[in-house]
Write a structure and sequence with these properties.
This protein is an alpha/beta fold. It contains nine helices and five strands. The protein binds adenosine monophosphate (AMP). Adenosine monophosphate (AMP) is lined by residues 11, 34-36, 39, 56-57, 60-63, 68, 88-89, 91, 95, 136, 145.
Amino acid sequence: MKKLFLIIGAPGSGKTTDAELIAKRNSDKIVHYSTGELLRQEVAKGTPLGATIASYIDQGKLVPLEIVMDTIRNAILNSDKDIILIDGFPRSVEQMKALEKMLEENPDIKLEAVIEVVVSEETAKERVLGRARGADDNEEVFNNRMKLYLEPLPEIEKYYEQKGLLKKINGERSIEEIVEEMEKFILEKAGA
Ligand code: AMP
């Protein structure tokens, strides 16, 4: 049985860093994928698919549903660990519904929780504009990404809250504190 944990949060919430650290500290049983990084890896390959993906990422737009679902499905199916952390997904209501369908088709994958790393818009903006990772880290693109993140959030929160799967974590603390709380939650939930 594969135990899936989804980690969502605004751009700059620290979700990728948190999940990466937790996977590193538990590398015998936990694997982590960042949706954004998986997509950027495809871009780096220089394939036609990568070029299509880049045209969305560079504008801070959501990559089309089918490409994202293929990316997520491949990551889960190729993982050799039982506990899988995926950050940056779902980012829309249609992704959430597509995931539901995927889980129905794959009963050996269990969604254990959706962890939301909560930060204020100011904190998110300061962090993103401070890191300047690539073409998508400028103010205009940030505003776009923030808007895109916030728009479906209430529906996503409500859906997983009703299922008893939503766990909110305060992302305005030190990395150590956030990682500690998240790691404890994941290990307890997964019974590991
Ligand atoms: P991130 O690394 O999570 O900040 O994501 C960087 C960019 O990758 C986003 O602005 C989107 O263009 C794309 N991306 C990441 N996750 C998704 C997703 N779940 N659905 C669609 N596009 C995504």
